[in-house]
Amino acid sequence: MTTRLLIVSDTHVPTRARQLPSAVIEAADAVDLVIHAGDWIVASVLDELESHAEVLGVWGNNDPADLCARLPEVARRAIDGVRFAVVHETGQATGREVRMDAAFPDIDVLVFGHSHIPWDSTTPAGLRLLNPGSPTDRRRQATCTYLTAVADDGALREVALVHL
Questions:
Q1: What is the tally of structural domains in the chain?
Q2: CA–CA separation, 58 and 90 (whole Å)
Q3: How many angstroms separate the CA atoms of 1 and 80, rounded?
Q4: CB 3.0–4.6 Å: which of 8, 16, 110, 146 could bond 137 by disulfide?
Q5: Strand, coil or helix: what is 29?
Q6: % of the chain surpassing 70 pLDDT
Q7: How far apart (Å, rounded) are the C-alpha atoms in residues 55 and 111?
């Protein structure tokens, strides 16, 4: 089986945008699973994404108590043979690969957010680190972003950074 993924983080609705961009909603309609790495800000964003696809998400440092009650700090799931973990924060970029190898030794892909800066690297131990950036708050980036990917038969394929 193949699972099409939409990977987002740091949506910050309604503080950075009034609503999710239409491109994110359209992408959610085209996938099997949405992975969200926290900082939703309001539960209605979770509800909206759940109305389009299944959601695997975590809470972030800006999320209120009602979201924290619905979501874990760290989520783990095997998706078509690929072992995923999702967390909001991983700390500073310097030393990230070594820290995440130690923290997630049994994971193939770690999705994280917080910085609003897209990231795609592989650690010395082979852990794939993915940060989709933010679809609503580009900060120091040229554009807002999210990721799409496919999990299939134990491999993560077709990882693409989408610029809005």
A1: 1
A2: 13
A3: 7
A4: 16
A5: helix
A6: 100
A7: 14
CA distance 57 to 161: 19
Tens digits of residue pLDDT in 31-50: 999 999 999 999 999 999 99
Running along the chain, 164 residues long, what does each successive block of 10 average in pLDDT?
Answer: 95 90 96 97 96 97 95 97 96 92 96 95 96 93 95 96 96
Q: Residue 115's closest CA among 141, 97, 142?
A: 141
Distances (CA, A) of 142 to 38, 96, 116, 164: 22, 23, 11, 10
* CATH code (residue 97): 3.60.21.10
Using a 10 angstrom Cβ sphere, with 0-12 exposed, 13-18 middle and 19 or more buried, the burial of residue 142 is exposed
Stated pTM of the model: 0.95
Q: Which structure tokens are listed for 100? A: 């995440």
